[in-house]
TrEMBL record:
Every DUF58 domain range: 169-333
Origin organism lineage: Bacteria, Bacillati, Actinomycetota, Actinomycetes, Micrococcales
One Pfam entry name: DUF58
InterPro entries: DUF58
Name recorded for this polypeptide: DUF58 domain-containing protein
Length: 414
């Protein structure tokens, strides 16, 4: 412009721009970024969290580089900042809070980097990163007694006498009795050797059978984020496994619907990690019916907890097979309570998403729940307790009744 117009003072107007460009290039040369562009990296501090837990996501570039990251909102999770966009000097951080079990996909994340003077910028799209969300560590409010202990050593009181800590009776000393069990108070009073007889203490084997043949979604009218039948099944399985593994028992898992891989029997904290990891890897296939996997055999006296919505006839037949093999079966009903609820049918017309529903799903589910009530009644008449999953205290009445039935007098068969 100065050469065309013959006015040299115009050069002074472009001098700040030239100086700004020279400083920006010099800064890049000093940091060696002219040949090596900035490559952002994604880092997640925790690859496995519980329901309601939080994982920190950090994007790092280089010191002094303005970094902006944008993260789409994953389902069943919250991102802070809310819109998933934040800027920082060389690094940006975000927090992801998971609301449901499963796998949370972090990304794809769009990253924009620029120098402090804004002389250049680059855009990158980082690949996906997954965070496993295990079911919440719910503490089951229930006793640890089981109807039939079948192990060798543990916390469950056995009916037969042997080495243990629970006193059975004080009897006369017999050849072969241990000397440290002699009751010296009774011996000094009766002038004859007496010893303490005790009950043995055993562990047991707990088999959890999950029914994932279908995921029954809750009705659309309840407020809040109501759980599905699969959510209730996963959370009940995790609570039951944690309850008995803490007591020192062996716990195994068998899935009828092929959604969760079978977990062999084990005990201790490692078995709990294996179970929760297997549960968190389950995927949600809405509306997909899966074939039934049949359990061929089970050890007699095994405490078997079946978590099912009681809608599949093959699953109900499998419960009968378990009882026929001699297992102590407890059925946990995982059908959402809003399914089949007739309360919305009373009064005004049912509205779904602000519109009057022209379908008869509530009536159909109400009839289906009535038919299912007959199945529940037949199971209870056959001696199989059925309890609805309503939280940590759901199994307490059933386990207490089984413990009472274990010590109740029995009729002798002639």
């Amino acid at each position: 412009m100065a050469l065309l117009t013959g006015r040299p003072e115009i050069i002074l107007a472009g001098a700040p721009l030239l100086l700004w460009a020279m400083v920006a290039i010099a800064r890049r040369q000093l940091r060696g970024e002219a040949q090596a562009p900035v490559n952002p990296t994604l880092h997640v501090n925790r690859r496995s969290i519980e329901e309601g837990g939080t994982a920190a996501v950090t994007v790092r570039t280089s010191p002094g580089v303005l970094t902006t990251a944008t993260l789409p909102m994953p389902p069943h999770a919250d991102v802070a900042p809310r819109h998933g966009s934040v800027a920082g000097d060389g690094a940006v951080g975000m927090r992801i809070s998971a609301q449901r079990w499963g796998r949370v996909r972090v990304g794809p994340m769009h990253v924009l980097v620029a120098d402090a003077l804004g002389a250049y910028r680059a855009q990158r799209t980082l690949p996906l990163a997954e965070v496993q969300v295990v079911p919440a560590s719910t503490v089951l409010d229930a006793p640890v007694e089981v109807p039939t202990p079948i192990g060798v050593s543990g916390v469950h009181l056995s009916r037969r006498r042997g080495d243990g800590t629970a006193l059975s009776e004080v009897r006369a000393f017999r050849p072969g009795d241990r000397l440290h069990r002699i009751n010296w108070r009774v011996t000094s009073r009766t002038r004859e050797l007496h010893t303490n007889a005790t009950f043995t203490e055993q562990d047991t084997e707990v088999l959890i059978v999950t029914d994932t043949t279908a995921d029954i979604a809750p009705a659309p009218w309840p407020d809040g984020d109501a759980p599905t039948s699969l959510d209730m099944t996963i959370r009940a399985t995790s609570a039951i496994a944690r309850h008995y593994l803490t007591a020192g028992d062996r716990v195994s898992l068998f899935d009828i619907g092929h959604l969760i891989g079978p977990v062999p029997a084990g005990s201790g904290p490692r078995q709990l990690r294996v179970l929760t990891t297997a549960l968190s890897r389950a995927t949600r296939d809405e509306g997909v019916m899966r074939p039934v996997r049949r359990l061929r055999t089970v050890r007699q006296g095994t405490l078997t907890v079946v978590c099912t919505p009681l809608l599949n006839r093959d699953t109900i037949d499998q419960i009968g097979v378990l009882v026929a093999h001699g297992a102590d079966v407890i059925v946990v009903d995982t059908l959402p309570p809003s399914i089949g609820d007739v309360a919305p049918l009373r009064g005004k017309a049912l509205r779904v998403d602000g519109r009057v529903s022209d379908r008869f799903w509530p009536e159909a589910w109400a009839l289906r729940r009535l038919l299912r009530g007959r199945t529940v009644r037949e199971l209870r008449e056959a001696g199989i307790p059925v309890t609805a999953w309503e939280g940590p205290s759901s199994l307490a009445p059933v386990l207490l009744s089984l413990s009472a039935a274990r010590t109740a007098p029995r009729r002798r068969r002639s």
